[in-house]
Design brief:
The complex is a heterodimer. By secondary structure, chain A is mostly helical. Chain A is built from 7 helices and no strands. Chain A has a domain of 130 residues: Four Helix Bundle (Hemerythrin (Met), subunit A), CATH 1.20.120.80. In chain A, helix 4 runs antiparallel to helix 7. Chain A is elongated, with a radius of gyration of 19 Å. Chain B has 2 domains: 550 residues, Cytochrome C Oxidase, Chain A (Up-down Bundle), CATH 1.20.210; 52 residues. The longest helix of chain B has 35 residues. Chain B starts with a helix and ends with a helix. The chains are: A mainly alpha, B mainly alpha.
Chain lengths: 206, 632
């Protein structure tokens, strides 16, 4: 069943919230993100407490390069925008357009991950490993947890898109696409904080 | 039973024991999951209770050699950890699962699949923790697992603590999200927030507390995990780490946890006291307000566990005042219960005895709590038996009394049979008197200077009498629990069958349907016209609730084995990490590979769950009419 056929059959507005199951998923996912916020909050608090405990290893402004991080930020912010376009297409039951935008989101997510792996690889070359100092453990845990979230998001959205070729946009699938997009925005917001607290503060705050 | 056969089409060939086991492993029905939680929590409650008895045997006389050194530390740590995470939490979830959908007039919870997953994660997490006894010793760092003791000086036991709690904590978090959404989205028509039974309100607030309190625990456990297994430096002072961070993280979780446990107990007490006083709960809206306020304040008091750390007078003063403030909403609740009983027709059933026994007991725990909130005084009480007495008054005298009231009150609704009241009252008196005999002397032991967590004391320090009384009391409680078990066995075999309105004076929706509730809960969704909806209908001369919809087919979710398999794969991952731990250097590769396989299986199961659409099944109208007729 393709998306256009669906549009003719059941053009219910806001398919992501049309059923009780959809509404439950929507609300439950917001609560989940609330819990995730506290999780990242704890990671940030710990990072702030340990950011100048560099032991014998390198410190933040010796390591970080702003151009690279800036590029990562632009890529991830753009991917958030493309996921918005995907959801707008979903609300119009345009399955093709939704898939296109979500695939672009996935590609941008992969580009971000590639940059992060490159960055971590560089740091390892500068003898900045997970066990170097309290700062390094806190840094890799915070940024790495975010990276794992991006990786999970990439896998999740890809898997949903592969399914969408067969299942199209229905009141069953729409909530899934919608919460995946919510998750992606959340990852993006967390990154904005990482960019500020870890990198900007690390370079400028000394 | 055609619907049942239909719902279990997969397993229709299996007969006998395996069939029975399969039904329980694959169930997504909240009423069955409630029974699973009751069984799981009850099992760990017995284990934790035996550990408590071992502690009391060791401390009964001075210079005892029954259980010394590390062995004592292991039993003491496992007692605390088991009772908090593996007994109290799941028993609360048992009550919530058994009652909440019925009280709000829903056919199921919002996420039946997640509900089952939550249970299995908790149960297997508990098993992981308890297998430590057979693999080189249980955790011995106290239930608080303070660093660097827990990360640097204790053996593999702490890995079981970290990963076992990580599993069961994930299960708890899922359960909380499930109940938040269930209560917000699935209330019957007319069941506004301010018409919900108080147990629903306290469970709603508790779920919100879990949602915001458990992620810090998850992160803290990850830090200990990374430190212990991958040699990170969060708490390693040699490389700039800081052990105080763990204390903050643990208590940011740990203090709300106290309210997570006690709020549902408050809810149960509110239901039981109102029902058995044959009166509406006094001051309903102030009860709701007090519940929400307690939930809010519970996140602002964690430093009172750390007064002696030396965070400075300003921090200590702020947290001291916040802590004392909590006494206000709690006091409101106490007076509301008293006023509910005032002028009521009080029925002294076992459930109500526990509820009434709860009130003075909890007040005593609250008063010592305010005493502990004063920082200069706390410097004296800190880490003494005074603290032990305080938190047992709050958790055992508060939470467990509440849970036992709930078990006696809702048992007929869960199982369709009444518990024996005479045996119940024997349980109550042994438990109540045993409890006070155990913990009342501990206040004085603490004030006389006996430190907590020590495995022995010397003769001639005036500790002998108090400790002996305390140990006798512990055995009194054990007798109470044994009588309860006998009660359960006897009444299951030939107990009185419970009517729908088992106590004859039920006020809330769960009593308007058969006991035990049919699979679909409500043949027709009820229309709620006020607080104590069923009582209101009965007063208007009706035997049943006014339906809000015509009779029709009911859609149900299919049973599934995936939650169980998911939990198994994460258990595999946990064991992988536990056996990867290597004090000397790099983690063992074999363990890491096992862990990777476990996580891979988990992702695969998530994929399968995402691809496979569950269409569920329908219970047909005729079938429902037949079952409803039989129940009458």
């Amino acid at each position: 069943m393709s998306g256009t056929e669906n549009a003719g059959l059941q053009a219910i507005p806001n398919p992501e919230k049309a059923t009780l199951e959809g509404k439950n998923k929507f609300l439950g996912f917001w609560f989940f993100l609330g819990g995730e916020t506290v999780l990242f909050g704890t990671l940030f608090a710990t990072f702030l407490a340990l950011r100048d405990k560099v032991a014998s290893g390198p410190s933040a402004h010796e390591l970080f390069s702003l151009p690279l991080t800036f590029l990562s930020t632009i890529i991830l912010l753009t991917s958030s925008l493309t996921s918005v376009f995907a959801i707008l297409a979903m609300k119009d039951y345009k399955a093709g357009a939704m898939r296109l935008w979500f695939w672009i989101t996935v590609l941008l997510g992969l580009a971000f991950l590639g940059l992060e792996i490159y960055e971590f690889h560089e740091y390892l070359g500068e003898h900045f490993g997970f066990t170097t100092s309290a700062f390094s453990s806190a840094f890799y845990t915070l940024v790495g947890t975010h990276g794992c979230h991006v990786l999970f998001g990439v896998l999740w959205i890809s898997e949903l898109m592969l399914q969408s070729y067969k299942k199209g946009i229905t009141t069953v699938t729409a909530p899934k696409y919608y919460v995946a997009a919510l998750y992606w925005h959340f990852i993006d917001v967390v990154w904005v904080f990482i960019f500020t607290v870890v990198y900007l503060l690390g370079i400028l705050g000394g | 039973m055609t619907t049942h056969a239909q719902s279990l089409a997969v397993s229709s060939q299996r007969k006998g024991f395996l069939h029975w086991l399969w039904t329980w492993i694959t169930t997504v029905d909240h009423k069955k999951i409630a029974i699973l939680y009751l069984f799981g929590g009850g099992l760990f409650f017995l284990i934790g209770g035996i550990e408590a008895l071992l502690i009391r045997i060791q401390l009964a006389v001075p210079n005892n050699h029954f259980l010394v050194g590390s062995e004592y530390n292991q039993v003491m740590t496992m007692h605390g950890t088991t009772m908090i995470f593996l007994a109290a939490m799941p028993l609360i979830f048992a009550m919530m699962n058994a009652v909440i959908p019925l009280q709000i007039g829903a056919r199921d919870v919002a996420f039946p699949f997640v509900n089952a997953l939550g249970f299995w994660l908790f149960f297997l997490g508990g098993i992981v923790l308890n297998t430590s006894w057979f693999f080189g010793g249980a955790p011995a760092g106290g239930w608080t697992a303070y660093t660097p003791l827990a990360t640097e000086y204790l053996g593999s036991g702490m890995d079981f603590y970290i990963l076992g709690l990580q599993l069961s904590g994930a299960g708890t978090l899922m359960g909380a999200i499930n109940f938040l959404v269930t209560i917000i989205n699935m209330r019957a028509p007319g069941m506004t927030f301010m018409r919900m039974p108080l147990f629903c309100w306290t469970s709603l607030v508790t779920s919100a507390l879990i949602l915001f309190a458990f992620p810090p625990l998850t992160v803290g456990l990850f830090f200990e995990f990374f430190d212990h297994i991958f040699h990170a430096n969060f708490f390693n002072t040699a490389n700039g780490g800081n052990g105080i961070i763990w204390e903050h993280i643990f208590w940011i979780f740990g203090h709300p946890e106290v309210y997570i446990l006690v709020l549902p107990a408050f809810g149960i007490i509110s239901e039981v006291v109102a029902t058995f006083s044959k009166k509406r709960l006094f001051g309903y809206s102030s009860m709701v307000f007090a519940t929400v306020l307690i939930g809010f304040l519970s996140f602002m008091v964690w430093v009172h566990h750390m007064f002696t750390v030396g965070l400075g007078p300003v921090a200590n003063a702020v947290f001291a005042i916040a802590t004392m403030t909590i006494a206000v909403p709690t006091g409101i609740k106490i007076f509301n219960w008293l006023f509910t009983m005032w002028g009521g027709q009080i029925h002294f059933t076992t459930a109500n005895l526990f509820a009434i026994g709860f009130i003075p007991t909890f007040v005593m725990g609250g008063v010592t709590g305010v005493m502990l909130a004063v920082p200069p005084a706390d410097a004296q009480y800190h880490d003494s038996y005074f603290v032990v007495a305080h938190f047992h008054y709050v958790i055992l005298g508060g939470v467990v009394f509440g849970l036992l009231a709930g078990v006696f009150y809702w048992w007929p609704k869960m199982f369709g049979r009444m518990l024996n009241e005479t045996l119940g009252k024997i349980t109550f008196w042994f438990f109540f008197l045993g409890f006070h005999l155990t913990f009342f002397p501990q206040h004085f032991l603490g004030l006389m200077g006996m430190p907590r967590r020590y495995f022995t004391y010397l003769p001639g320090e005036h500790f002998e009498l108090g400790n002996m009384l305390s140990s006798i009391g512990a055995f009194g409680m054990a007798v109470g629990v044994i009588v309860l078990l006998i009660n359960i066995v006897v009444t299951t075999a030939k107990g009185k069958r419970a009517k729908g309105d088992a106590w004859g004076i039920g006020r809330t929706l769960e009593w308007s349907i058969a006991s035990p509730a049919p699979e679909y809960n409500f043949a027709q969704t009820p229309l709620v016209k006020g607080i104590d909806a069923f009582w209101k209908e009965k007063m208007a001369g009706n035997k049943k609730m006014t339906p809000a919809e015509p009779l029709g087919d009911v859609h149900m979710p299919s049973p599934t084995v995936i939650p169980f398999l998911m939990s198994l794969s994460l258990t595999l991952a946990s064991f992988g990490f536990i056996f990867a731990a290597n004090q000397a250097g790099k983690p063992h590769t074999g363990g890491l590979i096992t862990a990777a396989i476990g996580i891979g299986l988990m992702l695969l199961l998530m994929l399968i769950h995402s691809i496979k659409d569950d269409h569920g099944f329908h219970i047909h109208k005729e079938e429902i009419m037949r079952i409803e007729k039989e129940a009458e």
